[in-house]
Amino acid sequence: MQPFADKVHLRVKYSCMRFALLFLLFLLTGSSLFAQQFTVSGKITDDAGKPVPFAGVHIQNTTQGASANSEGEYSISLKAGKYVLQYKTVGYLMAARVVNVNQNITLNIRLVTEVYRLPDVNIGSRDPAYAIMRKAIKKRKTYLNEVKAYSAFVYIKGMQKLLQAPKKFLGKDIDQIGKQIGLDSNRRGIIYLSESESKYSFLSPGNVHEEMISSKVSGSNRAFSFNRASDLKVNFYQNFEDWRSISLRPLISPVADNAFFYYHYKWLGQAFENGKTVNKIQVIPRREHDPCFEGYIYIQDDSWRLVGLNLYITQKANIILVDTLRIHQQFVPVNNKVWMTSTLRFDFTGGLFGFKLGGYFISVYKDYDLNPTLNKKEFHETLRITKGINKKDSTYWSEERPIPLTDEERTDYIHKEALAIKHESKPYLDSIDHVYNKVKPFELIIGGINLRNRYTKRILAL
Q1: Which of 80, 200, 276, 365 would staple 229 via disulfide (CB 3.0–4.6 Å)?
Q2: φ, ψ for residue 47 (rounded to 5)?
Q3: Per-residue H/E/C for 16-70
Q4: Poorest-confidence range of 260-269, 303-312, 396-405?
């Protein structure tokens, strides 16, 4: 018989092996639970219950965040754990919520309109805004040159809609063209919808490198997004913005060295955020047709830095292509000293020859690194697009996008995907070839013709 001690030893050995196997199984399965992503989602509304579009949602003490869409809906992906979520947009008091994440959570938020109080001050004959602006302008160069290098991940969504169109233009049937590109019977609808993600790197004094890591264009699985973080970059600490595509003149910043020559300022009061006093300043062009912005800027006391802005420019400033361009920018502290852009949005409307357009571009920044390891050779190219970035599936995008799609945008993706499949089919392409490959004897005599087969991508020259 086997000695008792040996039996005990075998049992201990067996128990240890079983424990090791169970522990290994736990690591293989349990680790996936720890890595599992959950979502906190809901709707952000104001005092009256109306949606607050594009409000920012951030994890406290980080640059991780998301944004509500145009209908106030938000969704942020988080691993299991305890978080403090902050909800903020210009003009509203910040709201904070503690969430324990171990499942998907629906959390609706109501933001209270910010009240900017006018304390009793001896203003004399001069609006206090001018003293605040002098301090902000004095700090302009400090904040302009504060960060020598950084990298960040940027999500961009662009959407343009045709709001109005004539039935015919230059002999073309716009109704027929509209059906082909997914417009409704009134020739209205989304004509461009795209999302992209990029890693954006900056190296002083003005070198940028952008690597697009994902791209999605409604209606095409082959196209690449036109979205570029470098095209949407603004910095009002610069004396002016040189936007040649819409203005033949540089646009003067409200905190430019010579801003007092171009702007009037009005102090609208103070509010308190995270223990800091924030001043709301209205900026007003001195002359109607100067290349200046209108709207509001938000400047923090003591540091005299910009913490948010809500500006616009119209055709009065002699801009071209668009009637009105609005710029909304929010900043977030990356550390105790430096603030960087968290969200940046451009809204625009414009029109020409009976066509009326409207839309927006919005970018959400995260994972700032203010001490990145950068290869200077990368800056020899400003944009890199690698193969396969437009092949990400719907699961990837549902997890990665920080701004939920609206019902209209979701429908556009589905509808145009069906149209794209149809437009790439052999019967459809053959029908197009049948129209355009008609042989005219005169063309054959004087120079020959090309017969095109769009399905096989071949051309026969005759």
Answers
A1: 200
A2: -60, -35
A3: HHHHHHHHHHHHHHHHHHHHCEEEEEEEEECCCCCECCCCEEEECCCCCEEECCC
A4: 396-405
2-31 mean pLDDT: 43
E-strand ranges in 165-305 read: 168-169, 172-173, 189-203, 207-217, 240-241, 251-252, 263-273, 276-285, 294-300
| Least confident segment among 95-104, 168-177, 302-311, 415-424 | 415-424
By three-state DSSP, how is residue 77 classified?
strand
Give the global pTM. Answer: 0.82
Nearest to 409 by CA among 346, 360, 343, 351: 360
CB 53 within 8 A of CB 90: no
- Model confidence at 148: pLDDT above 90: yes
**Orientation angle between helical segments 426-436 and 407-423, nearest 10 degrees:** 70
**pLDDT above 50 (res 39):** yes
Domain ranges of the chain: 37-110, 128-414, 425-461
CB 218 within 8 A of CB 193: yes
Q: SS3 string of 287-356?
A: CCCCCECEEEEEEECCCCCEEEEEEEEEHHHCCCCCCEEEEEEEEEECCCCCEEEEEEEEEEEEEECCEE
Burial class from Cβ neighbours inside 10 Å (0-12, 13-18, 19+) for residue 199 reads middle
